[in-house]
Amino acid sequence: MIKNKSKPWALLGVALLIGTLSQSQTMFVKKINNIQNNYSLASIKKLSFTTTNMKVQKNDNTEVATALNNISYLNFIQNTVGIKESFNNERVFLKTYPNPVEYVLNIDFADVNLGNATISILSLDGKLLLTANVSGKKDISINLSQLAQGVYICQLKTDKELKRTKLIKQ
């Protein structure tokens, strides 16, 4: 999320982020009057910034211009229902859902005996926020309601592997 603190020029960096945010599916533009516009990234042909405006050109060539000083924030969201990732040569899966999560995160280990294993939730700077022993379990539910909205890392650590996946908290 990119917030505008009465510095419209601060939003100009968003144009550079579009390439790295290509997996996001939705762009949210919230104005200072609390009106929010949603744009599917698949429907955006071009996103450009001038010194005073943000312009969204859609695939149908319609354009929407918004004054930068009227934007409270921009937010890019990936609406992934679940993420299923596998370890190298083993059949150990880390399936987290829903993702994004609002309250309770479910983690399914796909009917594989993990042995000695731990699930951790980390901040993006690596700070350990939550941890749970999952040795011998097939699935687990973790209450994340106490976490602030943002992006976190869900980490599975076994005797043999360390696996991480991105987690979005709404």
Structure overview:
By secondary structure, the chain is mainly beta. The chain has 2 domains: 2-77, SH3 type barrels (Roll), CATH 2.30.30.100; 83-169, Immunoglobulin-like (Sandwich). It is built from 1 helix and 15 strands; from the N terminus they run βαββββββββββββββ. It has one helix at residues 14-17, and strands at 2-3, 26-31, 36-40, 44-49, 53-58, 63-67, 71-77, 83-86, 93-97, 104-108, 117-122, 128-133, 139-143, 150-158, 162-169. The strands form 4 sheets. The chain has a 4-stranded antiparallel sheet, with no helix packed on it. β8 and β9 form a beta hairpin. The longest helix has 4 residues, at 14-17. The protein is elongated and about 55 Å long. It starts with a strand and ends with a strand.
CATH fold label of the largest domain: Immunoglobulin-like
CATH architecture grouping of the largest domain: Sandwich
Unreliable residue stretches: 1-24, 80-92
Instruction: Specify the helix fraction band.
Output: under 10%
Distance between the termini: 12 Å
Helix-strand pattern: EHEEEEEEEEEEEEEE
SS class: mainly beta
What integer value in Å does the Rg equal? 19 Å
Counting structural domains, the number is 2
The total count of helices amounts to 1
